[in-house]
Amino acid sequence: MILSVSQLTKNFGGLRAVNKVDLAIAPATIHSIIGPNGAGKTTLFNLITGSIKPVDGSVRFRDRDITGWSPQRLAKLGVARTFQRTSIYARLDVLENVALAIRSREGMTTSVWQPASAERRVRDEATDILAKVGLRGREAVLAGNLAHGYQRSLDIAIGLALNPALILMDEPLAGMSRGDRETVASLITMLRDTLGLTVVVVEHDVGMVMRLSDRITVMQHGTVIADAPPAEIRGNEAVRNAYLHGNFAQ
Amino acid sequence: MREQLTADAGVIAGQPPRRGKAILVIAAVAAVGAVFPFLLAGEPFLLMLASYALTAAIVALSLDLLTGNTGLLSFGHAAWYGFGAYAAGLLSKTVTSDIVLLVLMTMLATAVIATLIGAVLVRQIGKTFAILTLAFSQIIFAIVFVFSGLTGGEDGLQGIPVPTFFGLQVFKPEVWFWIFYGVLVISLAFALHVRRSPLGKAWLAIRDNAERASFIGMNVNRLKLIAYSSSATLAAVAGALFVLFNGAASPDLLSWFESGKILMYVVLGGVGTLVGPILGAIAFTVAEHYVSSFTDAWLIYFGGLFVLMVIVAPGGIFGALSGIWTRGAASREAAQ
Ligand SMILES: Nc1ncnc2c1ncn2[C@@H]1O[C@H](COP(=O)(O)OP(=O)(O)OP(=O)(O)O)[C@@H](O)[C@H]1O
Ligand SMILES: [Mg+2]
C-alpha cells in the first residue's frame, strides 16, 4: 500500500467530521472517495495532506509515518493535492503558476541568480504539463481570468508539476464542461497507466467514478460505509441508502 | 494593490531585457547623477535637501522590498532605519572611521538581529504582524532612552566624526550626494533583478496565495524572513549613511511618526512598484521642506493629500504615471 490511513479522527466542536476512518490505497491505482455533501471527504484530504491535524489515528505513506506532517514537507516527499475550492495564483500568468511548482520541486525557490538555460528548462516543462491538462495556448493568460473549468485544470497542473508519487484531487471535474471532463478523465487514466501515479479522487460524478476507478470508498457522516471495486459498490445496499435520490446506480 | 500585482506579473511574462537598451538606461542614470550636483552649484542647501530626499528614497525602497514583495505591512520600519543610524554612529565613535567598514558592520549587525526578530514576527499573520512591528519599534525607541549614557538619550547621539574613505575625509556635499545616489541606484537595480529571479517570483506567489505556496513545498515563513531581513538591512544602510552625513542622530529617527512617513512614501508612490516609493519619498521630502516653512499645519495638508491620493489614485504616483503613459501610447497608436 502506498498510503494507509488508520483510525483517523477529527472533531469540529461536537461534530465528528472524520470518525475512525481506515483507508488503504494501492500503488498505481485510481481510488475514488465518494459520499453525500458533508460526509467528511475534504476533511479527510485535509488530514492526510497536513492542512489540519487529526485528534487520533495515523497516516502512513510508503511505510513512513506522516501523521501531522506539514504540506511543505509532504510536497517534498511526493504527495500533492488539488483543491475543491480552486487554489491557484490568480494574479500570475498560467505558465508562472506551474513554473513556481517546478522551481520549488527543484529547490530553486530562493535563488537570485539563475542561468537563462535553467529558466528555459523550467518554462519548457511547464508548457508540456499545461498541454497535458488541455491548457495549451493559454500560457500567458492571467490565471484569474481563465474560465472556471480551466482554472480547475490549472490546479491539477500545479499538483502534477511536483512530480508526485501520489496526488489527491478534490472534485477535479466540478464545474467543467462535458468536453473538459473527458480531457481530465483521460488525463487521470494516463497518469496511472503511463506514469504509474497513484490518484485519489473525491468526485460527485458517480458515472465517471464508476468508469475511472479501480476501487471506491464510500463515506457518510464521517465514517466509511463501503470499500470495494466499482462493480460491488453498485450493488451495495448501504450505499444505495446513503444516496437517497436513487440517481446513483444508473 | 490588486492592479499593481497584475503589472508585476506582466514583468514576469515579458521578454528578457534587451542589452542595448539596458546600457542606454545605465548611461543616462549615471549621467544624471554625475551632473546633478553641478546644477545646484550655488545652492549648497538644495544639494543637502537632495541628499535627505535620497536617504528617504532608500528607506522607502527598503520597505517596498517587504510590503511590495510579500504583502507584509510594517508599522515600525523606522526602527531599522534608526537602528542603523545609532549602530553606525556608535561604531564610528569607537571602532573605525572608515565609511565602507562602518556600513558593512552595520549591515551585518542588522542582518543578524533582524533575522532573529523576524523569525518571531513572520510567524504572525496580517494585522498581528503589523501591530508587532509597531510594538517592536517602540521597544527599540525605549532602549535609546534606557541607555542614554551611551546614546545621548533625548539629546541624540552627538559628535560623530567625519568618516573616511581609504584615509580621505568624506565631507564634500557633492560626494555625499553621489554616495546616496549610487547606493539608491544599485539597490534599485538589485531589487528589480531579484523581482525577476526565482526568489522574487516566489514572493509574488506567497503574496497571492500563501496556502497554495506551502502545498507546492515552499517554506512560506522562510521566504517572508528573507524579505524582512533584507528590507531591514537596506533601511539600516540608509540610517548609517544618514548619520555619517548628518553628524548626529536623534531618537526621532526611530519614532512611530517616522515609521508612518516611510509607509506614506510607499503608499503615495505605489506599493510593489519599487520605483514608485522612491518617487513618493522624494516628492514627500521636498514638499515637506517647502510646505513646513510656510505653515505649522503642514501635516494636516499632507494627511488630506494622502487620503485623496489613496482614493483617486490607489496605484500611487507610479500607478498614475503608468496609466497616463499607457493611455498616451494607445492614443498615439490610434492616431496612426
Ligand atoms: N473548518 C471547519 N470547521 C467546522 N466544521 C467544518 C469545518 N470543515 C468542515 N466542517 C464540517 O465537517 C463536515 C464534513 O465536511 P467536508 O467538507 O469534509 O465534507 P465533504 O464530504 O467534503 O462535503 P462536500 O461534498 O460538500 O464537499 C461538514 O459537516 C462540515 O460542515
Ligand atoms: Mg468536499
Uncertain regions spanning at least 5 consecutive residues of chain B: 1-15
CATH architectural label of the largest domain in chain A = 3-Layer(aba) Sandwich
Task: Name every ligand kind in the structure.
Answer: adenosine-5'-triphosphate, magnesium ion
Instruction: Indicate the mean pLDDT of chain A.
Output: 93
Stretches with pLDDT under 50, minimum 5 residues of chain A: none
Arrangement of strands in the largest sheet of chain B:
1-2
How many domain regions of chain A? 2
Instruction: State Rg of chain A.
Output: 18 Å
- The shape of chain A, in one word, is globular
The succession of helices and strands of chain A, N to C, reads: EEEHEEHEHHHEHEHEEHH
Which whole number gives the mean pLDDT of chain B?
A: 88
Quick one: how many beta strands of chain B? Answer: 2
- Whole-Å distance between the termini of chain B? 33 Å
Oligomeric grouping of the chains: heterodimer
Pfam families (chain A): ABC_tran (PF00005), BCA_ABC_TP_C (PF12399)
Keywords (chain A): ATP-binding, Nucleotide-binding, Transport
Domain ABC transporter (chain A): 3-246
GO molecular function, one term (chain A): ATP hydrolysis activity
How are the secondary structure elements laid out?
The complex is a heterodimer of chains A (250) and B (336).
Chain A: E1 3-12, E2 15-25, E3 30-34, H1 41-48, E4 56-61, E5 64-65, H2 71-77, E6 79-81, H3 94-105, H4 116-132, H5 148-160, E7 166-170, H6 178-195, E8 198-202, H7 206-212, E9 215-220, E10 223-228, H8 230-234, H9 237-242
Parallel strand pairs in A: 3-8, 3-9, 6-7, 7-8
Antiparallel strand pairs in A: 1-2, 1-4, 4-5, 9-10
Helix pairs in contact in A: 3-4, 3-5
Chain B: H1 2-13, H2 19-39, H3 44-70, H4 78-94, H5 99-121, H6 126-146, H7 148-151, E1 164-165, E2 168-169, H8 173-196, H9 198-215, H10 220-246, H11 256-269, H12 275-294, H13 298-312, H14 316-335
Antiparallel strand pairs in B: 1-2
Adenosine-5'-triphosphate is lined by residues 12, 15, 17, 35, 37-43, 84 of chain A.
